[in-house]
Amino acid sequence: MSHDHDIRIRSLQPSDLDFAQEVRKIAGWNQTDADWLRLINYEPDGCFLIECDGGPAGTATTTTYGNKVGWIGMVLVYPDFRRRGLATILLQHCISYLETRVSCIRLDATPAGREVYQKLGFVDEYRLHRWQRGDGAPENPTIAASLFDGEKAKTLDTEAFGADRSQFLSKLRETATLTIQTDDGSFGFLRSGKNAWYLGPIVSSSNESGVEIIEKLLANCRDEAIYWDILEPCKDVRVLAEKLGFTKQRELIRMRRGEALPSERPERQWAIGAPETG
Q1: What burial letters (b/e) apply to 244-256, b meaning 16+ CB within 10 Å?
Q2: Could you point out which of 22, 182, 247, 276 has its C-alpha 20 to 30 Å from the C-alpha of 98?
Q3: Domain spans of the chain, in order of start
Q4: Across-strand partners of 55?
Q5: Res 139 pLDDT > 60
Q6: Residues with Cβ < 8 Å from 208, sequence gap 6 or more?
Q7: What Å distances lie between residue 138 and 154, 171, 203, 208, 246, CA to CA?
C-alpha cells in the first residue's frame, strides 16, 4: 500500500448508508437497509468505515455474542480504492476490537479471500454453500404477524450455535417477513433481500420440525429467488434442498481465530443467519 494516502477509520453511521449500499450493490450482495442498520445499532462501536484522502472507501462490521464469539462481516472496498491494503487494515481493526471482547473470532470467507485471512491467523473449520431457487427479487414484502418466543428458542439455539445470540435474534425478528416456530422450540426466519428472499436462521432439533418449518417458509416465496446458506455438516439438509429444487451456487469457508466452540452443534443449524453474522 502506498503511504501517500491519508487513511482514517471511524465508526460506521446510519448517515453512511448510501455509501454502504453502493459498495454492497457493486459486490452483488443481498443486504437491505434494515440489515445494515441492525448491524450498526447492535454493535455501534464495532462497525467501521475506512476513509481514504477524506472520502469513504470501505466498510467492515463485527457482531458479538456474549464473550464467546464475534463475527466479522461486510468487508467491502470501493473499486477505486482496491489494491491499497485497505481491506487488510479494516480486518486488523476488527480483530483488535474483537480480541479483547471474545475468545473466538469467526468469519465466512470466499475462496479468494481465504489466503488473506490465513495470514491474519485464521484457520479453516468447515465449508458452507449457498443454494438458490427461482429468479427475481421479492416484490413488496411485508412483515407477517407471526409469533416468536425467544426464551423458548434460547436453549436449543445456544446449543446449536455455540453461543447465546438471543438478543441478536430478537432484533432480527423485528424485520423478518415471517417466523415459524414449532412446539419443541425449533424455529426459522424468512427475510427479504435486495436480490432474493433469504432463508435463515433455521435451527431444528429434529428432521420433522426442520422440514415443517422450511415448507411453511417456502410457501410464502412464490417463484421469486430464494437464497439458502447450508453448512457442510448438514448432509440431510443439502439432500432436502436438492429435492426442493435448489441448486448450489457458491462456496464459503467458515474460519476462526482463537478458541474453538466445543459446544456447537452445526448439524442442527439448518440454515445460517447470514454470512456476515453467522
Answers
A1: eebeeeeebbbbb
A2: 22
A3: 7-126, 131-271
A4: 52
A5: yes
A6: none
A7: 30, 21, 23, 28, 17
Does the domain made of 7-126 have the CATH classification 3.40.630.30? Answer: yes
CATH topology of domain 131-271: Aminopeptidase (3.40.630)
| Predicted structure pTM score | 0.94
Measured between alpha carbons, how far is 197 from 215 in angstroms, rounded to an integer? 14
Residue type, 113: G
Q: What is the pLDDT of residues 103-129, one digit of tens each?
A: 999 999 999 889 999 999 999 999 999
User: How many other C-beta atoms are found inside a 10 Å radius of the C-beta of residue 66?
Assistant: 15
Cα 104 to Cα 88, 255, 258: the distances in Å are 19, 10, 5
Task: Determine the Cα–Cα distance for residues 146 and 177; give it in Å rounded to an integer.
Answer: 9
DSSP 43: S
